[in-house]
Design goal:
By secondary structure, the chain is α/β, with parallel strands linked by helices. The chain contains eight helices and six strands, in the order βαβαβαααβαβααβ. It has a six-stranded mixed sheet with strand order 3-4-2-1-5-6. α6 runs parallel beside α8. The chain starts with 5 loop residues before the first strand and ends in an 8-residue tail after the last strand. 32% of the residues are buried. The model has no long low-confidence stretch (mean pLDDT 86).
């Protein structure tokens, strides 16, 4: 019998991160696990409103609150109905606990911080599918996280991209 696991999913509400969420639910999520939805806002914080969360991120937000538009507006995160429906279904059918953690700053550094803060057993991420030149110039979030995260990291490629 395996212990309940902490599984993180990096969520920027892009198609690739939604694919990663679906993959994590279909292939990893099991009864008793906790699924952490990790969203990184690249914008700097409004000093007066969110300074408390600048370094450590928000408190954990349960799915019931993540569903509330006014709660998400408070954190400057748009509500995505497709993601919420996927999470609701997973919560009911797979009997997993779902919570969200929001960070502000560089996605590479904050995802590694999230792995450590939340004591994740694994992290699932989508792939943006940047071409070689853009990846070299911009840097790859997934490459950085794979290199620096102290847990297994799974990159879910977009099956329709056709890029290798």
């Amino acid at each position: 019998m395996t212990k309940d696991r902490n599984v993180g999913v990096a969520m920027d509400f892009s198609k690739s991160s939604k694919n990663a969420l679906k993959w994590a639910i279909d292939n990893l999520a099991d009864k008793g696990d906790t699924l952490f939805i990790i969203h990184i806002n690249p914008n700097t914080l409004d000093e007066s409103r969110h300074q408390l969360w600048a370094k450590s991120g928000t408190p954990l937000i349960p799915l019931s609150e993540f569903r509330e538009p006014e709660v998400m507006k408070k954190y400057d995160v748009r509500t995505d109905i497709e993601v919420l429906d996927t999470l609701d279904t997973a919560s009911r059918q797979k009997e997993v606990n779902i919570v969200t953690k929001l960070y502000w700053g560089d996605a590479r550094e904050k995802l590694v911080q999230a792995v450590e803060d939340l004591k994740l057993d694994s992290l699932i991420m989508g792939s943006r599918g940047l071409g070689t030149i853009r990846r070299i110039l911009l840097g790859s979030v997934s490459n950085y996280v794979i290199t620096h995260a102290p847990c297994p990291v799974t990159i879910v490629k977009d099956s329709s991209s056709g890029q290798h």
